[in-house]
Design goal:
Number of domains: 2
Number of strands: 20
Shape: elongated
Number of helices: 9
Order of helices and strands: EEEHEEEHHHEHEHEEHHEEEHEEEEEEE
CATH topology of the largest domain: Rossmann fold
Radius of gyration: 25 Å
Distance between the termini: 38 Å
CATH architecture of the largest domain: 3-Layer(aba) Sandwich
CATH class of the largest domain: Alpha Beta
CATH superfamily of the largest domain: P-loop containing nucleotide triphosphate hydrolases
Oligomer: single chain
Strand order of the largest sheet: 6-7-8-3-9-10
Structural class: alpha+beta
Bound molecules: adenosine-5'-triphosphate, magnesium ion
């Protein structure tokens, strides 16, 4: 049983800086949890407190039902994989993988078995005699993971383990780590600043900002139901588009209006909740995939269209990203590759008003 629980955990560094502010988090047994957030938000600090590499200023950390605040790192039954792999350069792969077990005085035979098993799982059996300098980045990464696996820890901690790899290898290792998790069924906590890694790997995502946890959810819920504008903008690539405008009431409908030309009808199921924002400013948010060129929409409803000009065009093969300008604001849209558009062309962009979000202007909380 290796549930990890953080209870009112605070980290204040010696210089007075509070890197983690009263964080509460339950990481369920056997789950793959990804902690994600912008640089400096406190991810590594949180992980290092769990590992025991950093003192906890306030609060408690439990592993299983045991408080581990004062348990030394080597007795926590945790293995950590770092961004720089931290392999010993003068040792062979075999020795790097077996080192921790030797320190713990495991019998030679048991060490051999574990290293053999782990290297088979990771496909590095042929590399056991090599030194780290003779390995590629991806191979080093596997050795670092192997060194963690042989310990058979109850919790794995990963701190941006793929950030030194090129894009293609990163995608491959992402899949391999997921397979490893399926196979080992051990609690894994994975830190990254890359929202794509978080979306693709996590059973659950924990999103942090400025030392606080902002939202904990499955990737899909995080994407479809962000709690605020920060999460909405952070998760998803290209990012959600935002526009500040006003809610007005006309006849039996509410509209979002901006500048001279933008007037979008509020979706009927959003009308009731938006009533209290009439004559107030809100932020509209729509994802790049929630737009379409009007020529492809035979039944476009009135007041769902943005009159725009194509500003930048990026053909991606399977789709086209068009940066389109509405008055003085530029938005990103993902369009069908069948669309023939040149820079400077006028396009009527239909927004799927059912899928949009509104955010409170003061709190940035999601309204719908
Ligand atoms: N030893 C330290 N003393 C003082 N402040 C520190 C110390 N270590 C980290 N910090 C600060 O604490 C904050 C959180 O740092 P942390 O390393 O946890 O961020 P992170 O989320 O892992 O960022 P990144 O994505 O860049 O790795 C940062 O503002 C950092 O400058
Ligand atoms: Mg970090």
């Amino acid at each position: 049983m290796a549930e990890v629980i953080l209870k009112d955990v605070v980290k204040q560094y010696d210089n007075g800086f509070v890197a983690v502010k009263k964080v509460n988090l339950t990481i369920p047994d056997k789950e793959f949890t990804v902690i994600v957030g912008p640089s400096g938000c406190g991810k590594t600090t949180t992980l290092r407190m769990i590992a025991g590499l950093e003192d906890i200023t306030e609060g408690k950390i439990f592993i299983g039902d045991k408080v581990i605040n004062h348990v030394s790192p080597k007795d926590r039954d945790i293995a950590m994989v770092f961004q720089n792999y931290a392999l010993y350069p003068h040792m062979t792969v075999y020795d790097n993988m077996s080192f921790g077990l030797k320190l713990r005085k495991y019998p030679k035979k048991a060490i051999e078995e574990r290293v053999t098993d782990a290297s088979e799982i990771l496909g590095i059996t042929d590399l056991l005699d090599r030194k780290p300098s003779m390995l590629s980045g991806g191979q080093r990464q596997r050795v670092a993971v192997g060194r963690a696996i042989v310990r058979k820890p109850t919790v794995f901690l990963f701190d941006e383990p793929l950030s030194n790899l090129d894009a293609k290898l990163r995608v491959q290792m992402r899949a391999e780590l997921q397979k490893l998790h399926n196979r080992l069924k051990t609690t894994m906590i994975y830190v990254t600043h890359d929202q794509m890694e978080a979306m693709t790997m996590g059973d659950r995502i924990v999103i942090m900002k400025d030392g606080d946890i902002v939202q904990v959810d499955s990737p899909i819920r995080m994407y479809n139901h962000p709690v605020n504008k920060f999460v909405a903008g952070f998760i998803g690539s290209p990012s959600m588009n935002f526009l500040e405008g006003k809610i007005v009431s006309e006849g039996s409908n509410l509209y979002f209006v901006y500048g001279k030309s933008v007037k979008l009808v509020v979706f009927k199921e959003h009308q009731k909740i938006m009533e209290k924002y009439v004559d107030k400013n809100v932020v509209l948010g729509f994802r790049p995939e929630h737009v379409e060129d009007k020529i492809f929409v035979s039944d476009a409803k009135p007041f769902t269209t943005l009159k725009s000009t194509a500003d930048v065009i990026e053909p991606m093969g399977s789709e086209i990203y068009i940066y389109f300008k509405v008055e003085n604001t530029t938005f990103t849209g993902r369009f069908s590759p069948k669309l023939r558009v040149k820079i400077g062309d006028k396009i009527d962009v239909v927004v799927d008003m059912e899928s949009i979000h509104f955010f409170d202007i003061d709190t940035e909380a999601t309204i719908v």
